[in-house]
Design brief:
Blueprint: H1 6-32, H2 45-98, E1 101-103, E2 109-111, H3 118-126, H4 128-166, H5 188-204, H6 211-224, H7 228-257, H8 262-279, H9 294-301, H10 303-319, H11 332-340, H12 349-365, E3 372-373, H13 384-392, H14 396-403, H15 419-426, E4 431-436, E5 439-444, H16 450-461, H17 477-490, H18 501-513, H19 515-523, H20 549-560, E6 563-566, E7 572-574, H21 575-592, H22 607-632, H23 665-673, H24 678-691, H25 703-715, H26 722-746
Parallel strand pairs: 3-4
Antiparallel strand pairs: 1-2, 4-5, 6-7
Helix pairs in contact: 1-2, 2-4, 4-5, 4-6, 5-6, 5-7, 6-8, 7-8, 7-10, 7-11, 10-11, 11-13, 12-13, 12-14, 13-16, 14-16, 15-17, 16-17, 16-18, 18-20, 18-21, 19-22, 20-21, 20-22, 20-26, 21-22, 21-23, 22-24, 22-26, 23-25, 25-26
C-alpha cells in the first residue's frame, strides 16, 4: 500500500531511453562496420563469412530495441494495473472505516467498538440481532478486502511471469544463443496466455502437469478471464479441438482419476468457460446485428471479427466429432456446452444464438447425436441443446431474441426463426439408451427440457429464472410474442394441460409474471377474450398477450400441479399456489381502484363496483376450477406424489415466492383480511362435480371470492351497504360462469 508505484514509470522511461541508445548504436554499426562487407573492396569467402556475422550482430541491435521497448510497455502496463487495484483496495478500506470498522495494517477487519457512544455500545453488547448484523458487515468487508489483496497478488505474479518471459530469446534460428528477444511483446496478458496455453495443451494431451503449474493456470484464469487479449490468445491457441479435449480431461480427472482434487479441476473448468465467454463477444446485440445479416457478415469479415469466424467454423467442425467410443460416444458439442455451464460470465447473445442454430442443424443432420448411451460421461450432459438453453437463461435478452417468433433485425437484415415451434413440437427429444444384448432399452432423460423451461422463463420475463423484481406490469413486444407463441404451441390440439414436468415450475413463474394479462383474459376485460387473437397487443414496453381464454386455462392447469417447494411445516407448495396468490393480490389491487361512491349512493347499484366484482369473480371461478380439476383428474399427473391428496397452503405462502409483487398498505390490509383457506373452495367444487353431472347453478367454491370482497368492503368502509351486497351477488354469478367455462376448457366433466 505504501510502495511508490511511480518507480515503474521511471524504469519504463529508462528502458525507452535504452531503446533509443540501441537505435543510435545500430545506425553507427550499420554505417561503420556492417557496410564494410557490403562494399566492392572485400570479396570472397572471408567477406561472405563476415557478412553473415555482421548481419547477425545488426539484427541483435534491432532485437535489443524491440526487447527494451517491450519491457518498457510491460512496466507501464503493470503500473496501470497496480494503481487501479490499489485504488480499489483503498476505497474498500475507506468504506469499511465509514461503516464503523477498523482495518489493521495486515488487512484484518474488526468492529470499532471504541468509537461508539455509551448507548450504542450498551445496545451492541446486549442485542444478539445487533451483533449478528455487525458480524455480517465485518465479514462482508473482510471478504472484499481479501479478494482485492488476492487480485493484487495475482496481478503481481502475472507481471513477474511476463518480465521473465520477455527477455528469453525465443528464435532458435537467429544465429545467437540467449540473445536479445526480437519477438518481445509489450502486453502482460499475452505472455500469461502463452504460458497458460502451454500448460493447458499438455493437460489436454494427458501429460503430467505439476501442482505448481495447475496453480498458475488457475491464477491466470482468475486474473485474466475478463481480458480480451488474454482470452482470445489462449482460446486461439487451443482452438475448439484443444478446448474440448481439455474439458474432457478435466472431467476425467475430476470424476475418476483424481477425485480428491475435484474442486481444483472444476475451478479450472470455470476459468476456461469464462475465458471462452470473453473471447467470443460480438459487438452490439442480436436485435441490432442478427446472425446471418449483412451487418454481421461485414463484422465477421473485419479484422476484429476474423477470430470469431474462425472459431465458430472450427467449433462447427469439431462439434460433431466423436471424442468417445463407438459404444459410448461423446461428441464435441456435448463437451463444449457442458464446459459453458461452469461459467460465471454471461455469454454473448449472438454467440448463443448462432451456437443454438448450429446445434439444431447438427441434430437434424445426424438424428440421435445427443442421445446418452449407457452410463454416459460424468460431468457432461448428453443433450447439448437443452444444456445450451439452460446457459442461455442466464442472459434473458439472448433468450428473448432466440425465441422471438418475429425474428430479429429489420429490412434486409431481418432474420426469422421458429425455435419455439421446433422445440415444443417438432424436436424428437433425446432419451437415455442402454444396449442389453440384442435389445436397445430406452427411457426418458430425467433432465429433459429443463433448460428449455428456464430459457422460456427468461425470454418471456426479461429476468433470470426465479429472479426477483416482479411487478404487475406489461412486457416488451418481443417478450410478449414469446409468451403468446409458447402458450399457442403448448396448447396445440388442445393439449396445453399436458406439459412436460421439467417445464412446469419455470413456466409457472413466467405466467405469474403475466398476471395482469392473464387476469384480463380470464375476466373478459381483454377486448379479444375469450376467442383471443393470433398476435399480441403490441405497444412497446406496454405490450400484452392476447391468447384465447381456453388455451390459457389449459396451460395454467398444465403447470399448476408441479411441486414448487414446501412450507416450513412441510406442506407442499404448488405452482397453483403461486398463480392463485398472484391473482388474489392483483384482484385486491384491482378492487382497490374502484371509484368511491357517496354514502347516499351506497344503497343503490354502483356500476363500477359491480363491474370490478364481476371481473374478480370470474377470475376466482377460473382459478377454483383449475384447482378442483387437479383433484379430479389423474390423466396426466398423479397428485399422489404429493402425499396422495391435494393439499394447498394458505397462510404465509407469499413469502416463498419471488414472483409476487409488493403492493401498498391498503391493498396489503385487504389481502391480510381475506384469510379464507382456498383449499376449501377447490375441495368443495371438486366434490360438487363428483356427485353431480350438472352443477352449473351451484356456488360451490365461492368462499374465497366472498372473503376478498368482504375485505374490500371493510377496508373501504362499505361492507353491508346495498351496493356492496349487490356487487357480491354479481361476483357470485360471474364466479359460477368463470368456473363452468373453465371446466369446459379442462374437460373436467367426462
Amino acid at each position: 500500500m505504501t510502495t511508490d508505484l511511480g518507480t515503474l514509470t521511471t524504469a519504463a522511461d529508462a528502458w525507452d531511453g535504452m531503446a533509443k541508445e540501441f537505435s543510435k548504436q545500430e545506425k553507427a554499426y550499420k554505417r561503420d562496420v556492417h557496410g564494410i562487407s557490403m562494399g566492392p573492396a572485400w570479396i570472397g569467402l572471408s567477406a561472405d563469412a563476415a557478412n553473415r556475422r555482421f548481419d547477425i550482430t545488426l539484427q541483435e541491435y534491432q532485437n535489443a530495441q524491440t526487447e527494451a521497448k517491450a519491457v518498457s510497455s510491460l512496466l507501464r502496463d503493470a503500473h496501470i494495473q497496480f494503481v487501479e487495484l490499489r485504488g480499489k483496495l483503498k476505497a474498500a478500506r475507506q468504506d469499511a472505516v465509514a461503516n464503523g470498522m477498523r482495518v489493521s495494517d495486515q488487512g484484518v477487519v474488526t468492529y470499532d467498538t471504541a468509537s461508539l457512544d455509551e448507548g450504542t455500545r450498551n445496545a451492541y453488547h446486549h442485542d444478539p440481532d445487533f451483533q449478528e448484523s455487525v458480524r455480517k458487515q465485518v465479514q462482508a468487508s473482510q471478504n472484499r478486502i481479501d479478494q482485492l489483496v488476492k487480485d493484487i497478488t495475482d496481478a503481481d505474479k502475472g507481471v513477474q511471469l511476463s518480465l521473465n518471459a520477455v527477455v528469453v530469446d525465443s528464435n532458435l534460428l537467429d544465429g545467437t544463443s540467449n540473445g536479445f528477444n526480437g519477438q518481445a511483446q509489450g502486453d502482460i496478458e499475452k505472455y500469461e496466455a502463452e504460458n497458460a496455453e502451454d500448460i493447458a495443451n499438455r493437460l489436454a494431451a494427458g501429460d503430467k502437469v505439476s501442482a505448481a503449474e495447475l496453480a498458475e493456470l488457475r491464477r491466470a484464469f482468475r486474473d485474466n478471464s475478463d481480458d480480451k487479449v488474454f482470452s482470445q490468445t489462449l482460446i486461439k491457441g487451443l482452438g475448439p479441438d484443444g478446448t474440448i479435449k481439455l474439458t474432457n480431461e478435466l472431467n476425467e480427472l475430476a470424476y475418476d482419476d483424481d477425485r480428491k482434487h475435484k474442486a481444483i479441476y472444476l475451478e479450472l473448468q470455470g476459468g476456461l468457460a469464462d475465458t471462452v465467454a470473453k473471447a467470443t463477444q460480438v459487438p452490439g446485440s442480436v436485435a441490432d446485428v442478427p446472425p446471418g445479416s449483412q451487418k454481421f457478415k461485414d463484422w465477421v469479415a473485419s479484422d476484429d471479427g476474423r477470430f470469431y469466424r474462425q472459431w465458430m467454423n472450427d467449433l462447427d467442425k469439431h462439434g460433431t466429432k466423436n471424442y468417445g467410443s463407438n459404444t459410448q460416444p461423446l461428441y464435441g458439442h456435448q463437451s463444449f456446452v457442458s464446459l459453458m455451464q461452469h461459467a460465471d460470465a454471461k455469454y454473448d447473445d449472438q454467440f448463443l444464438y448462432e451456437l443454438g442454430d448450429e446445434l439444431i442443424a447438427a441434430e437434424k443432420h445426424q438424428p440421435g447425436i445427443y442421445t446418452e448411451w449407457g452410463a454416459g460421461h460424468d460431468g457432461i450432459r448428453a443433450d447439448a441443446l437443452d444444456g445450451l438453453l439452460g446457459v442461455m437463461s442466464k442472459n434473458p435478452d439472448a433468450a428473448t431474441s432466440f425465441f422471438d417468433p418475429a425474428g430479429n433485425g429489420t429490412g434486409s437484415d431481418h432474420v426469422a426463426n421458429d425455435h419455439v415451434k421446433y422445440l415444443l413440437h417438432e424436436r424428437e427429444w433425446p432419451q437415455h439408451s442402454t444396449v442389453a444384448g440384442p435389445t436397445v432399452v430406452t427411457m426418458d432423460d430425467p433432465l429433459s427440457r429443463l433448460g428449455l423451461g428456464l430459457a422460456l422463463e427468461a425470454a418471456t420475463t426479461g429476468r433470470e429464472p426465479d429472479g426477483t423484481g416482479a411487478s404487475f406490469d406489461h412486457h416488451t413486444e418481443a417478450q410478449a410474442r414469446v409468451m403468446q407463441e409458447t402458450i399457442t404451441q403448448l396448447d396445440k390440439d388442445d393439449k396445453g394441460d399436458a406439459i412436460p414436468q421439467n417445464m412446469k415450475v419455470p413456466l409457472g413463474r413466467a405466467l405469474a409474471d403475466y398476471t395482469m394479462d392473464t387476469h384480463a383474459i380470464l375476466s373478459g376485460t381483454e377486448p379479444s377474450s375469450p376467442d383471443g387473437l393470433d398476435h399480441i397487443n403490441a405497444d412497446g414496453d406496454e405490450s400484452s398477450i392476447a391468447n384465447s381464454k381456453h388455451s390459457l386455462l389449459r396451460v395454467m392447469r398444465g403447470v399448476s400441479d408441479a411441486a414448487y417447494g414446501t412450507t416450513p411445516d412441510g406442506d407442499p407448495v404448488l405452482v397453483y399456489d403461486l398463480l392463485y396468490e398472484n391473482q388474489k393480490v392483483y384482484s385486491a389491487d384491482y378492487l382497490d381502484t374502484a371509484r368511491d361512491a357517496p354514502s347516499e349512493q351506497q344503497n343503490n347499484v354502483v356500476g363500477d363496483w359491480d363491474n370490478k366484482a364481476r371481473h374478480v369473480g370470474e377470475v376466482y371461478g377460473s382459478m377454483t376450477a383449475i384447482g378442483s380439476d387437479m383433484i379430479l383428474d389423474d390423466r396426466d399427473t398423479k397428485i399422489g406424489n404429493l402425499n396422495d391428496t391435494m393439499r394447498y397452503t394458505y397462510h404465509g405462502v407469499g413469502g416463498l415466492f419471488t414472483q409476487i409483487p409488493v403492493v401498498g398498505d391498503p391493498v396489503q390490509r385487504m389481502i391480510d383480511a381475506a384469510t379464507y383457506e382456498y383449499s376449501k373452495d377447490v375441495t368443495a367444487a371438486a366434490e360438487d362435480v363428483a356427485r353431480s353431472e350438472d352443477s352449473a347453478e351451484t356456488s360451490a367454491g365461492v368462499g374465497g371470492t366472498n372473503a376478498l370482497l368482504d375485505a374490500w368492503g371493510t377496508t373501504h368502509d362499505i361492507k353491508g351497504t346495498e351496493a356492496h351486497e349487490h356487487a357480491k351477488g354479481e361476483a357470485k354469478q360471474s364466479f359460477i360462469t368463470g368456473r363452468e367455462d373453465a371446466y369446459s376448457a379442462l374437460r373436467t366433466r367426462k
